[in-house]
Amino acid sequence: MATSTATAFNDGEVRAGSRVLSVFENPLNARILRAHADGPQRLAELQEKIAWSAQTTVRAALSNLRGLGALTKRTVGNSPHAVATALSPAGEEMLFVADEVEAWLALSPEGPIAPDGEEAKGAVKALAGGWSSTLMRALANRPFTLTELASLIPEVSYPALERRVSWMRASGQIEPVEKEGRGTPYVVTDWLRHSIAPLSAAGRCERRHMDGKSGRITNIEVETSFLLAVPLAPLPPYASGTCMLAVQTDPIEPDDEDPGLAGVTVDVRHGQVLSCEPEISGEQSTWAVGTPETWLDVLIEGRIEDLRIGGINPQLALDLVSGMRFALFSDR
What we know:
This protein is α+β, with helices and mostly antiparallel strands. Among the domains are: 23-88, Winged helix-like DNA-binding domain superfamily/Winged helix DNA-binding domain (Arc Repressor Mutant, subunit A, Orthogonal Bundle), CATH 1.10.10.10; 233-329, Nonspecific Lipid-transfer Protein, Chain A (2-Layer Sandwich), CATH 3.30.1050. The chain has helices at 18-23, 27-35, 43-50, 55-68, 89-105, 118-132, 135-141, 146-152, 158-170, 190-194, 196-209, 219-229, 292-301, 314-329; strands at 71-75, 83-87, 174-176, 186-188, 241-248, 261-269, 272-277, 286-290, 308-311. The strands form three sheets. It has a five-stranded mixed beta sheet with strand order 7-6-5-8-9. It has a two-stranded antiparallel ribbon with strand order 1-2. Helix 5 (89-105) packs antiparallel against helix 11 (196-209) and helix 7 packs across helix 12. The longest helix is centred in the first third of the chain and has 17 residues, at 89-105.
């Protein structure tokens, strides 16, 4: 098994899942998608269903959703001028993403956030900014001050990074911790850890329906997801040992037939996660390995049988995977 490469926080790539997640920075998009759940909608019908939005605003949103492939145009009746919009397969899956975004908003530490308000818009925008800038990856493993984050993520200007930290702090996704010396370190909250659910849903939607337009799944996405999700996993008291959780990341070049592995090594004692480190090697005694598609289906649908699980303690791998799924998608 391959060893993961060093994490690069400043690679400037479009993060997998960020395109679909950004759709829900505007709550109007979710309302429009939901309005189409009953079938094709003409503009007048749609306007009536979502009531208070101006027609020009609705037209612009429809155009954007068609551009993403979430909606398609079709004629209604015998007139070629009678046009309606309908959900595409991508749009149908985006409804699931919308559900996961709303479920995440309901878990806010300050109380459930209404999905149609400005607070929801700010929270999703902060999440998208933290994900796309690799800010979440930097903070997933340990606290950092703003100055330290700026050195880790040089492609984001200091003022822009400061704004993103401020948004995430204001919405309760990160919080300050006390430290002697200069600067205030920030740590992730459990609420931010639960954001791996909507991010996974968004990433799977892109993989299925936006071939060529979605970002690659790299060590950044893999490590961030595991580092944030593993500590949430409830484990049985007998669970003990060390386990590697790894993903076969997308090849850097299209003709590269040997994708690398990225993931974490988890140390568990008596049902408690003692450590979760973004390091993997070929000498692990227990492991769970799969493709990006396999891992997304495992977390969202529970298809654990599709993973390659092995080693001296496969039950530990099963417990960790089942625990993450329970924490993120327990109502599925």
